Amino acid sequence: MNKKKRIVIALGGNALGNDLEEQKIAVKSTASAVVDLIEEGCEVVIAHGNGPQVGMIHNSMSNAENIPLYVSGAMSQTYIGFDLENALREELLKRKIGNMPVATIMTQIVVDKDDKSFENPTKPIGRFMSLEEAKEVEDRLGYDIVEDSGRGYRRVVPSPSPRRIVEIDSIRTLVESGQLVISCGGGGIPVIEEENSLKGIDAVIDKDFASCLLAKELEADFLIILTAVEKVAINFGKENEKWLSDLSIDEAKKYIEEGHFAPGSMLPKIVAAIDFAGSKEGRAALITQLEKAKKGIKGDTGTRIHM
Ligand code: ADP
Ligand code: MG
After folding, report:
1. What's the pTM?
2. 5-110+165-306: what CATH class?
3. CB-based pocket (< 6 A), ligand 1
């Protein structure tokens, strides 16, 4: 009998919606796309983003500005896990797959305390402020503040590289016993190792990079990044736009140099895909639309990145 294909799925913003109402609805179609892959015979592990959710949690605690971002991040993992887990359970039962436990794992990811992103924070988070307000929190709380695309001032935090998933052994044990695991939410809670303790830090690990590390650690066959577009394009949004079905690592690197992928959206996905596909013989990555996951896994759509 063939061994099941192990797939790590990275869910993007469209899988979870932008607020409480939207998330309740979005998780239903997300669950359906995930269970499609399980029905196709794949062993699935889920990771996801948390942008709007962590923003909402963090902003609603703005009366207590000393609440660290990593605390809001931890809250967002369980909040998203609550909705996603329940939608998955419902979908599994609906399709008569009654013997698959679903579990959300609070996940911390160790980053280097010397990561060079700490010198140059670039990731905007939280609410928009006036210049006056921005200067006040800059002085009082030591935040780094930038002007964000003409919309006002925002706090920026570093985006360090993920080094080690703290809960990886627990995740692996659950996956290997046939459970459906949700982990590395929002790219994981970034922590720094200090002797015997893990210290939370105010930073955001890109969920595409965290998912790549998870896929490598679990010896997955496939990293599937599910987002809002069916395929990756070169000359995206231009007249000569060209959608790609197949992309070798060398081609992908060339297109990065030529600037085809937007930083902060498609670029981290391509970088994660290259990293995973190049990490061992037989591994490949797929970038496609959430609703097209089933077609994608059969090789009928999406952009496949390979050695
Ligand atoms: P997610 O929440 O899934 O991480 P992002 O918005 O961060 O989604 O990234 C996906 C988006 O990247 C797409 O919806 C698309 O608008 C944009 N994008 C930028 N460059 C490209 C490209 N070259 N090909 C396809 N999509 C691109
Ligand atoms: Mg993104």
Report:
1. 0.96
2. alpha beta
3. 12-13, 49, 227-229, 232-233, 236, 260-262, 265-266
